[in-house]
Every structure is written in structure tokens, then in C-alpha cells.
Amino acid sequence: MRNRKYLIGVLAGVVGVLAFSGVASAANPTGQTLQTTLSPAKQDAKKFGGVSLHNIIATTYPDFVNSPSPQQTVFSIDPNVKFVNGNLPACPLGNIQGRPTATARAGCAQSITGQGTVQANNGAINGVVTFFTGGPKTIYVHTDLANGALIIPITGTISGRTLTFTGIPNTPGTSLTNFDTTFNKIGTGKKKGEKQFYVMARCKKKSWSTSETTTFYNGQQLSASSSQKCKKKGGKKK
User: Fold this and answer.
1) Is residue 228 part of a domain?
2) How many domains, the chain?
3) pLDDT for 8-39, tens place per residue?
4) Left (φ > 0), alpha (ψ -120 to 50) or beta: where does 146 sit?
5) Domain that holds residue 107
6) Is residue 207 part of a domain?
7) Per the domain annotation, does 133 fall within a domain?
8) Cα–Cα distance between 131 and 117 in angstroms, integer?
9) 1: pLDDT strictly greater than 70
10) Tell me, what DSSP letter sits at residue 204?
């Protein structure tokens, strides 16, 4: 009899754990999409030319109660696309950290490399994104939600073809569901007589491909990819 009661107790505990797990996982993200567009798409096959880079990354959640926040996102950049910081001045992090958009932009006006919008919880909360260069291999992503009510600092590190964004705070129940941003086509100086731009690309092949993987605070990972056709300049007519 005692063994029977013990077995019933164990089963009840297992059922309880499974039920709790089901509730806890109900808010887990279920999908992610990536759309990357470089413009102009017509580029030289050998020489890199200046482009703007428009990027949309969207994450789908079934609901936002206890939803896990993204911890980091790692992009794999096409080998025919590169970032060139050139002579852009590095923005001191203290000039923008914890400050609303207007103050941050004024504090590092010469270091701005792009901008965009951000949505949390499918647009229940909206905000503004500003990219600042923090040096040749560093990008600061100033994310200002609800007019300064929540300012999220994100740091990007460039290493070869890998672009890693980290430092995203854990904010359960407030999930970043859409980033729509653009790195501008801005000059960063000259090298060997040729003008340099912050983002540069060449059409060595017929397309550019980008992929990303986001890791969430609960250990879950989601990945997405994007491909865009490009057109070679100066091709010989047959």
C-alpha cells in the first residue's frame, strides 16, 4: 500500500513537471526570418563599390508571457561584402549609453553609420535604432524603445565574415520581434585613390547570401538566411 502511494506520488510529480514545462515553453519563439538587401545591386566583378545594406530580422512568438529574450545574434556575411570603417571617428560609449536618441545622436553625430526602427511584442512597443561606429571592428546599436522608457545597448563585433551582436539584456515578457535597419552608403575616406564606403560589395558571383543564428536566454537557437541577386558591371555583350 505504501509503495502504491509512493508510486502515485512520483507519477503526480512527473505530470506536474511536464505540465509546468508545457506552460513555460508556450512563450518560446517559434520562427525567425531574415531579409537583406544591398543597393545598388549592380557592382563591379572585381572592385568593391559602396552600397547601403537594408536588413529586416523578424521573430515570431506564440505569446509574450515569460518569453525569453535574445542573448546574441551572429551573422555570416557574404565573402563579397565587407565593412570599411576608414576615417570615421569612433564614438565613445559613454556619449550614447543610457541616453535618448536625440541626445545620443548629438553626442556622436560624426559616428552615425545607419538607423532604423524596432518593434517589441509585435508593435505593442515601438522604437528607434541608431548605428554608431565604435572603431574599425565595433558597432554600437542604440535601441530606444517607447521614447526613452527602455534603452537597450547592443554591441556588434566584426571579425572577418562574422558579425556578432551581444549585450542584449534579458527582459522576459518584452520581446524584440522586428528590427528594420539600414547601414547607409557613406564615404569613409580613400585608399589607393579609390573612395571607400562603410559597406562595400562586389558582384563576383551572381548573388549575395547572408545567414544568422540567434541564441535566446533559455538556450534555444533559431536561424534564418537571405539571398539577393546582383548584376555585374561592364559585362561584355554577346
Assistant:
1) no
2) 1
3) 343 333 333 333 333 345 689 999 999 999 99
4) left
5) 29-223
6) yes
7) yes
8) 11
9) no
10) S
